[in-house]
Amino acid sequence: MQWINNEAFVIESKNFGAVVQLTGTRDQSFGAASAMGGNNYEHVPWGANDNKPNEMNRLKEANNQVKPLLEAMRDMIYASGLGFFKRTIKDGKQRFDPYTDAKLEDWSFETELENYIIGIINERVTNGNPFTRFEFTPGGVPLLSVSDSFTTRIGRPAGKGKPISNFYLNPNFGDRQYFNPKDSEQIPAFDKRNPKANIVSILHCREIVSGNPFYDFPSWWLAKDWIELANLIPLFHKSGIKNGYNLKYLIKMPRDYFDKDGGKELDQKAVSAKWAQFGDSLKQWLSGVDNVNKSLLVRYLRGEDGKALDSVDVVPLKNEQSDDAYSKVWEMANVSITNATGLLPVLGGVTPGSKSGDSGSQVRVVADYQQHYRTPVHRHIVLEPTVYALRLLGYTDVFPMFKGVQLTTLDQNPNGKQAVVNQA
């Protein structure tokens, strides 16, 4: 064993070797155990290969369910959009009334608030770690924008127990081929006690998860195996339609079938060439959508006893795996993925164990429950930067809130034109 430093050793052998790293930190879900040491990066890696967002995004791109489910969750959080509400306290009770003024309208327009809010919700539901870029104008007005999780990393703390003081931006995080630490731009962390200490800073808002001191992770990442399984099913059917499902024929041929040509013995090279040519021709003939339900003609010789001599024997094979079996796997995967996103199955278009449960009244009740009981934590996290911005603008009794949507029945809204919203 060769000592490198207090954290790393090299174990040598004749043909192989290994590096042992002692990090002094516990593993974290979808994080990196080497956050405090081991590599020379100034940032905390996100995942074992510093590419966890990239890895999960590739799975999402190959799946037709995940992105719509995340969009449905985003829509539940966003509801009717963002509004400002002024708080008044009377008789010990809080009351929030819709509020706006010219200053708020101008700031919302300048910082493109609605687009920012939609983007930061997408970051929350997709990668679990919304990063907000604060940038102050010469007049001291804070402008908010989303810092993409793919290009943003947490700076390594100065020591154990020390706070995070900076972040790093690099367009090639997660890409070992093109990543160069020299291309990283260092941005100070947002100072909540002195927000204007830096013209540009990054605020990382996340849910505190035990065992994950740096990065949070969204619940749908826990369905990684189900997503991979679901992604294989369309490929299987696509290949099945083109080339035939599973193994359909067992073709038996004498071992010496091509040993002779016109009674002449062939050398091994010529025999191998004939087998290869025959295999390619058979493969092309039996596969593909253009060769479905065709027949195979086999010519054979008769012996002196009038019986057929050994020739090509084609035996059809029965497919024991029915289409229903694949459909059930597909349904199970979709239910598991929907549950993992945090969206109730009815709203995700799947109803496990029953073909009912998707009536209008059922959807209405489930949508109300989802909106009011499954979104408050998400909303608190994504609104934190806006709360700080309002404080910096001088608003101490005005708060950002999402305006909820209340679905109504036809007896309450017979023409379907009444706009019914409730404060969330």
Describe this structure in words.
The protein has helices at 52-61, 66-78, 102-110, 113-127, 224-243, 268-286, 323-341, 360-373, 376-392, and strands spanning 2-5, 8-12, 17-21, 82-90, 93-98, 131-136, 142-147, 152-154, 166-169, 185-188, 200-204, 249-252, 260-261, 264-265, 313-316, 398-405, 421-423. The chain is α+β, with helices and mostly antiparallel strands. A hairpin with a 2-residue loop joins strand 4 (82-90) and strand 5. Residues 21-27 and 419-424 have low confidence and may be disordered.
Provide tags for this entry.
about 425 residues, 3-stranded antiparallel sheet, elongated
Tertiary shape: elongated
- N-to-C terminal Cα separation, in Å? 61 Å
Helix count, DSSP H or I runs of 4 or more residues:
9
Radius of gyration: 32 Å
Total number of beta strands: 17
Overall pLDDT confidence: 81
Query: What would you call the structural class?
Result: alpha+beta
Largest sheet: 4 strands, antiparallel
Percent helix range: 25-40%
The fraction of residues in strands falls at 15-25%
- What string gives the helices and strands in order? EEEHHEEHHEEEEEEHEEEHEHHHEE
- Uncertain stretches of 5 or more adjacent residues: 21-27, 419-424
Strand order of the largest sheet: 5-4-16-17
